[in-house]
């Protein structure tokens, strides 16, 4: 037994790093045949069975006072497949010994070296279901280069870290094939730090399925056999996304609708949410993070499973079904994705192998004071591989159409939310996070190369230049950027009593100064209706009628303004109460005609928007916009024209920001002819007073606003009217 003393010590303490060098079937040390060594705690006897002919080769000898069993086979020369017949009292079980599958590990190791640095980490590590001849099971692989030892524990081995030590590879990946472990099995990794410290059990960073709290175990998934039905969607010609309409409905799946207190499942949402959003005319759904997260109160923004849709609403294939149904209904799917930070939950990425493997080791760069979360170490190639692989997983494996990257500003600035002495300058003495910049460029380059029809969107709240410009122009490479400045300025303006708006006219016009510096998306997001901010309706001034009129006016101004559109759920029904992630939307408000009127307005805004190229084709180019009059400060009126590539196709927009009806209001227009009134937010169907222009107005040869032609219109109070140029008058140029 003395020759196995060290081995027994490591096995019993779950500290063995190279089990395949010792356990399993090997040539005997004395050169006489084969020797089988098996470690099996809590069994009485073990018989060895030749798997080829089911012959019992004998009962193994237990080494004294241990769980190590040995069988000598002096007449055998060649390795062969075998099973172990275990007996515990009256119970008998036959299993494959996992430590006979060294060849499978070697095959994966060779393949993995060629894949890890091609952003395919999710195919290298994690758990998958291969075949070893006729044997099925689960292949586990996890990156933990500094760990002293790693074991797979789960409901298949009583969560006992002694039973299945993994094999350490020179690439830092620990591997093990466990025969008989199939889909649905729960597992984690038991990791010892370099000094032997036993860490809290870790969930698999690459798992596709997780148990909910408090267990938070990873779940073995079967092969991806989902039958997608979205070939037409995926094969469509998307054109230039800058010149296409994009109107997104931002939704938190857990609080959209409930059955009593239970949120809808993915499959239920595939029916109800998809049909609802399609009926409203949106082009895209934007999902608050569905990446797995243990804390519901984070809304998904503190994820621990970057490759798994949360199991709160169903298994991974049910999420695929949801996306598939979106595509069949003509809806794109954008996923909020969080690479800026990760939570400190024990089973998560923090000190994963006993060292700061994923997080930056210096807390001045590796800890986020606002959220009490770890910050990724973007300078490590493996961390970048992990994150880029996650993004590609959602785009390729789950068929989402785009990712909106959260909290980009917190990644770009080393001094973000940090005071003097709380941050470390870069090598040039600046506050730019050079490694994060390099990562974001690599992310966008990879996404657009591997998934050219996808889009990336940055939530970036500062004036960092060229966020949505190509990397070859020195940009970060995003497709779009949220226009946070527009949102803050216009919400401030709309919250003012109309009598004071003339003193803040710049808030409503300033956005056009920088509108073409980036490819902007105009967001009215979840962030504006939480934490005591109230609802959008609640921000509007005046009595009840004026609040609704202001809100309708604001939505029409937004849809007419250059930039793609996004509205958070509940805003389309003018929900009065603040968003609560634990409750469903206040659908009962639709019993009120004013709330139904706002919903109908949103439906019509989307319909007109996607059908009228003047409202989207030149969103990102100054040729698509022209002020008619931005200087009517005293009346708080703004007017402008939006143009398609064919400038004969244009829309004139007039917004009256006061509750005063303006009769015989003259406005200059680009051309002579008939202008059809295609939208009036004061229409009775929306809950307004029906002050309008009887469907359209013809131009007069009266110069106004430096234009030869003009209209005389009736401008309703707290309202926007849109006029589409319809025809050229006979004899005019």
Describe this entry's structure for a reader.
The chain is of the alpha+beta class and about 725 residues long. The protein is elongated. Among the domains are: about 1-95, Immunoglobulins (Immunoglobulin-like, Sandwich), CATH 2.60.40.10; about 100-220, Immunoglobulins (Immunoglobulin-like, Sandwich). It is built from 15 helices and 39 strands. The chain is about 20% helix and about 25% strand.
Topology:
Layout: H1 5-12, E1 24-27, E2 34-39, E3 45-50, E4 55-59, E5 61-62, E6 68-73, E7 82-88, E8 91-96, H2 102-115, E9 126-128, E10 131-132, E11 135-143, E12 149-154, E13 167-168, E14 173-179, E15 186-192, E16 218-219, H3 231-234, E17 247-251, E18 258-259, E19 262-263, H4 266-280, E20 284-287, E21 291-292, E22 305-309, H5 316-328, E23 332-337, E24 341-342, H6 363-366, E25 367-368, E26 373-375, H7 381-397, E27 402-405, H8 408-412, H9 434-450, E28 455-458, E29 480-482, H10 484-495, H11 498-501, H12 505-509, E30 520-524, H13 536-539, H14 544-560, E31 564-568, H15 593-611, E32 625-632, E33 637-643, E34 650-656, E35 662-669, E36 673-680, E37 696-698, E38 709-715, E39 719-728
Parallel strand pairs: 17-20, 17-31, 20-23, 23-27, 27-28, 28-29, 29-30, 30-31
Antiparallel strand pairs: 1-2, 2-6, 3-4, 3-7, 5-6, 7-8, 9-11, 10-11, 11-14, 12-15, 13-14, 15-16, 18-19, 21-22, 24-26, 25-26, 32-33, 33-34, 34-39, 35-38, 36-37, 36-39
């Amino acid at each position: 037994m003395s020759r196995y003393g060290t081995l027994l010590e490591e096995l019993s303490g779950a500290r063995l790093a190279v089990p395949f060098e010792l356990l399993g079937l090997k040539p005997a040390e004395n050169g006489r045949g084969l020797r089988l060594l098996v470690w099996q705690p809590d069994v009485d006897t073990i018989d060895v069975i030749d798997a080829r002919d089911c012959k019992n080769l004998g009962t193994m000898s237990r080494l004294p006072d241990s769980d190590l069993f040995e069988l000598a086979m002096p007449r055998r020369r060649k390795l062969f497949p075998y099973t172990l017949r275990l007996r515990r009292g009256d119970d008998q079980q036959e299993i494959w010994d996992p430590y006979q599958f060294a060849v499978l590990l070697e095959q994966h190791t060779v393949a993995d070296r060629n894949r890890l640095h091609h952003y395919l980490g999710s195919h290298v590590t994690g758990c998958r279901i291969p075949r070893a001849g006729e044997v099925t099971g689960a292949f586990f692989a996890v990156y933990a280069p500094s760990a002293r030892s790693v074991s797979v524990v789960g409901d298949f081995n009583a969560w006992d870290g002694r039973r299945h030590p993994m094999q350490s590879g020179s690439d830092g990946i620990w591997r093990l094939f466990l025969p008989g472990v199939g889909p649905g099995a729960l597992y984690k990794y038991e990791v010892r730090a370099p000094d032997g410290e036993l860490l809290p059990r870790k969930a698999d960073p690459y798992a596709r399925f997780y148990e909910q709290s408090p267990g938070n175990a990873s779940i073995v998934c079967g092969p991806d056999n989902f039958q997608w039905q979205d070939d037409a969607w995926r094969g469509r010609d998307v054109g230039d996304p800058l010149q296409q309409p994009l109107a997104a409905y931002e939704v938190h799946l857990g609080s959209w609708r409930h059955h009593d207190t239970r949120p809808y499942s993915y499959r239920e949402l595939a029916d109800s949410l998809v049909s609802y959003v399609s009926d409203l005319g949106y082009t895209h759904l934007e999902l608050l993070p569905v990446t797995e997260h243990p804390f519901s109160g984070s809304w998904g923004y503190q994820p621990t499973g970057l490759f798994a849709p949360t199991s709160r609403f169903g298994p991974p294939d049910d999420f695929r079904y949801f996306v598939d149904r979106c595509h069949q209904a003509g809806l794109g799917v954008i996923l909020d994705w969080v690479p800026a930070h990760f939570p400190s939950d024990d089973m998560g990425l923090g000190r994963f192998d006993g060292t700061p493997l994923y997080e930056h080791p210096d807390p001045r760069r590796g800890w986020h004071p606002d959220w009490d979360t770890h910050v990724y170490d973007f300078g490590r190639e493996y961390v970048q591989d992990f994150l880029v692989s996650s993004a590609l997983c959602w785009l390729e494996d789950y068929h989402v159409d785009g990712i909106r990257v959260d909290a980009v500003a917190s990644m770009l600035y080393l001094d973000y939310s940090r005071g003097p002495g709380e941050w470390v300058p870069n090598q040039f003495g600046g506050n730019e996070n050079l490694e994060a910049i390099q990562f974001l460029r690599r992310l966008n380059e990879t996404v657009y190369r591997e998934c050219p029809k996808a889009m990336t969107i940055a939530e970036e709240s500062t004036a960092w230049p060229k966020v949505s410009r190509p990397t070859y122009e020195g940009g970060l490479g995003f497709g779009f950027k949220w226009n946070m400045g527009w949102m803050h300025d216009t919400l401030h303006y709309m919250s003012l009593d109309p009598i004071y708006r003339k003193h803040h006219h710049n808030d409503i016009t300033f956005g056009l100064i920088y509108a073409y510096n980036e490819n902007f998306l105009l967001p009215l997001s979840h962030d504006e209706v939480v934490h005591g901010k109230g609802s959008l309706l609640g921000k509007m001034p005046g009595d009840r009628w004026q609040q609704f009129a202001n809100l309708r006016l604001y939505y029409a101004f937004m849809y007419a303004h250059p930039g793609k559109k996004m509205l958070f759920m509940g805003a389309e029904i003018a929900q009065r109460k603040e968003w609560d992630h634990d409750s469903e939307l206040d659908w009962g408000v639709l019993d009120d005609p004013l709330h139904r009127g706002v919903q109908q307005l949103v439906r019509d805004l989307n319909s007109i928007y996607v059908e009228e190229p003047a409202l989207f084709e030149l969103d990102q180019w100054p040729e698509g916009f022209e002020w008619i009059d931005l200087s009517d400060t005293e009346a708080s009126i703004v007017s402008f024209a939006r143009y398609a590539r064919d400038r004969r196709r244009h829309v004139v927009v007039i917004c009256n920001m006061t509750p005063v009806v303006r009769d015989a209001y003259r406005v200059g227009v680009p051309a002579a002819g008939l202008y059809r009134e295609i939208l009036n937010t004061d229409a009775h169907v929306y809950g307004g007073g029906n002050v309008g222009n009887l469907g359209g107005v013809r131009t007069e040869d009266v110069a106004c606003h430096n234009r030869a032609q003009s209209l005389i219109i009736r401008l309703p109070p707290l309202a926007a009217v849109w006029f589409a140029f319809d025809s050229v008058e006979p004899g005019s140029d």
